[in-house]
Structures are given as C-alpha cells and as structure tokens.
Design a protein that fits this description.
By secondary structure, the protein is of the alpha+beta class. It has a five-stranded antiparallel beta sheet, sandwiched between helices. A hairpin with a 5-residue loop joins strand 6 and strand 7. The chain is rod-shaped and about 95 Å long.
C-alpha cells in the first residue's frame, strides 16, 4: 500500500530506530508498503521512518528493478570522504552538499532473519548512508558543515533550491541595524520633546550631552549600515542592483533625519 511520506516541517523522531525482532507478516507488509511508496513516488530508496514506522528497515531499488531489503542494518566500517550534492524526499527539491564516506561495509538481516553483510562504494554507499540517517531520526542536515548548513537553511526558509547568491530574500540582517538606528533616533526625539518642559540649565546641559553622544552613535551605525548593506547585497547577485538604490536612499534619509534632529536639539537644548 502506498503510504504518505513524511516531509518537512513535520519533525522526525529523535529516537533510534527500533530493531526488528519478529519476522512475520507485519514486517513483510511494511516492506511491501515501502516498495509501493517508492514506486508511486519514483524513489530509489526509502526508510521505514519516512512513512511513520519506527522499525529499522530500509528498502533500496536496484538497477535491474529488484529490491534490496535491509533489516536492522549497521554500519561497521568505512573509508574515504567525498562531498556531493544530495536531495532527500523529506526536504522536497531542496539540495545540499553533504560529506559522506566513499566506501562502507554494513551488516543486516534479510526477511528470513538471516545475517548478511554488504560492502559497497560510490553512489550506492551514499544512498545507504542517507537512509541510515533516518534510522537515527535524523537527516543530512546534521552532517552539514556550518557554512553549508547556513546556506541550506536559507534555501529552506524561502522554499527554493537555488544558490544563496542567486536568490533575493525579503529580509536582511541590515534591517536589524536600521531598526536600532530608528529606535535610537526615537529616543533622541523623546529627549528633545522633554526639554521643552525643563528650565534648569544644568539638566539641559546633561540632555544636550546625551543628544551629542547619541548622535555620534547613530552616525556610526549609519556608516556601518551603509557598508554592511552593500556587502550583504553582493551576496545575492539577482537583487544587488535593485537593492543598491534603496541602501543609498535609506542611508541619506537617515542622515537627514539625524541632522534635523541635532539642529533642533542645538536650538532648543544647547545651553
């Protein structure tokens, strides 16, 4: 029977796969469900975890169309490393560059509970390792380098399998810098308005000092925003040109606001 394959964002279990102890019709039915689900979804391999079963079972379709049934598989040795692009049904069409062992040896049982071993390399070794991830309640996400994980999570955020540099997101880290700038100027504006109700010269002098130092901070943040925003925009080649005008415009508008605020502060607060 074709089963629904679990996909992101439905979480996978964080528990280990449960080893099969009873080789009966229920197990055979599970294996048949895995095969049917693979055929219906045009998949080359499937773990029982991917259709909601906790049993440690993996089925792989061979080149000749027959199936390799791996029950209670265990990785016992490995050699070499290679990085290749991978996709998994859990994340749909979103890919990542994953480091895997080039050659592996596994032990497993067949449907007759007979112990067997298998030594493979290349694409089949990578495929088995991908499915073994699921028996630990994991995906290739846990195997990514820090940089690759950041790129993959960026793809995942926007639901598109494109290079980070070729995708134009709608939110940026520079927006957080701009938020701090705006909040700082709002505080300065509140201080300016408050000065209208203050007549003490000493207090006004302290308020002016605050405005002055705050303006230096806001100016520095604007400079940081300007250069960082350009750096960030260059990471997304598809939108850097359209963003450049916004960056420059935002920078100068912020400076104009700061200038007007300080001119007003000098006129009303400066002792």
């Amino acid at each position: 029977m074709n089963k629904e394959i679990i996909t992101y964002p439905t979480p996978l279990s964080v528990e280990f796969g449960v080893d099969v102890r009873v080789f009966d019709e229920k197990l055979f039915a599970l294996i048949d469900d895995l095969k049917d689900s693979m055929n219906e979804n045009n998949l080359e391999a499937l773990s029982a975890f991917q259709i909601g079963s906790y049993f440690n079972v993996i089925v792989i379709k061979k080149e000749d169309g027959s199936f390799l049934e791996l029950i209670n598989p265990r990785l016992i040795s490995h050699s070499g490393r290679e990085i290749e692009e991978e996709k998994t049904a859990y994340y749909g069409d979103i890919s990542a560059n994953v480091s895997r062992f080039e050659e592996i040896s596994i032990v497993y049982q067949d449907r007759n509970a007979t112990n067997a071993s298998l030594k493979v390399k290349g694409s089949l070794a990578r495929l088995i390792q991908r499915k073994l991830d699921y028996t630990f309640g994991a995906t290739f996400l846990q195997k990514l380098s820090a940089d690759e994980r950041a790129r993959f999570e960026s793809k995942l955020q926007y639901g598109a399998d494109v290079g980070v540099a070729d995708y134009c997101p709608t939110t940026f880290f520079r927006d957080k810098i701009l938020k701090v700038i705006n909040i700082s100027m709002i505080v300065m504006l509140v201080s300016l308005v408050s000065s209208f109700f203050v007549s003490d010269a000493e207090l006004l002098g302290e308020m002016w000092s605050y405005q002055l130092y705050a303006s230096f901070g806001v100016l520095a943040l604007n400079v940081i925003y300007f250069f960082y925003a350009q750096y960030e925009g260059k990471q997304y080649t598809s939108c850097s040109s359209c963003q450049l005008g916004n960056i420059v415009g935002t920078f100068f508008i912020s400076l104009i606001k700061l200038t007007l605020l300080m001119l007003s502060s000098y006129y009303f607060i400066h002792p």
